[in-house]
Design brief:
Elements: E1 2-4, E2 9-11, E3 19-25, H1 35-43, E4 49-55, H2 61-73, E5 77-82, E6 85-87, H3 89-95, E7 99-102, E8 107-110, H4 121-143, H5 149-156, E9 161-164, H6 165-180
Parallel strand pairs: 3-4, 4-5, 5-7, 6-8
Antiparallel strand pairs: 1-2, 8-9
Helix pairs in contact: 1-2, 2-3
């Protein structure tokens, strides 16, 4: 359908759209728990919308990396919705959304990665160095520009960072301005 006059042309069409909703609550566990989400993201159409509601203390960084890679590779529009307290690995999923929504009285917490390792001395050293490099790269790639350089440094030094819903909205608006100026 087209409405026209000499200086304005308006075209309207309707498309079929599928809304997928996922809720990540509780601890983020091993990847097998999240295969339905990852498969949905992988098979979604560009007209699909995926909402991921988050209320989680965090969990497995390995699982989160797989979820975020699926989100970034999906043609669907992925909206992450902060609902309540979201920490650690859950905060990274929140930041990876194409669009992000923050419900009132929500909270977001970031901290430096946690890891466990075992083995002989040289294996422990190699593992610690590799994990440190990997964790720092993930934090930089996923958290900047939401977190400032100063805040990233604080994370590396072991400080936990907490943001309430008002602070999150301010940071998202600031981040949007930075991204629009690129």
């Amino acid at each position: 359908m087209s409405d026209t006059n000499e200086s304005l042309h308006h075209f309207k069409h309707q498309q079929s759209q599928t809304l997928h909703e996922f809720y990540i609550t509780g601890e983020i566990l091993t990847i097998d728990v999240y295969i339905p989400l990852i498969k949905t993201l992988g098979h979604a159409e560009s007209t699909d919308v995926v909402h991921i509601y988050l209320s989680t203390p965090g969990g497995s960084l390995e699982t989160v990396v797989s979820i975020i890679n699926a989100m970034r590779n999906s043609p669907a529009v992925v909206t992450t919705i902060l609902s309540g307290s979201v920490a650690s690995a859950g905060a990274l999923i929140f930041l990876a959304g194409d669009t992000r929504a923050v419900e009132n009285h929500s909270m977001l917490m970031f901290h430096n990665y946690s890891s466990w390792s075992g083995g002989k001395g040289h294996e422990l050293m190699a593992s610690a160095e590799a994990t440190d490099k990997w964790g720092n790269k993930i934090n930089h790639d996923l958290c900047v520009p939401f977190l400032t350089t100063r805040e990233l440094k604080q994370l590396k030094e072991g400080k936990d960072l907490y943001f309430d819903s008002d602070e999150i909205m301010k940071k998202l608006k600031k981040e949007e301005k930075v991204n629009n100026n690129k």
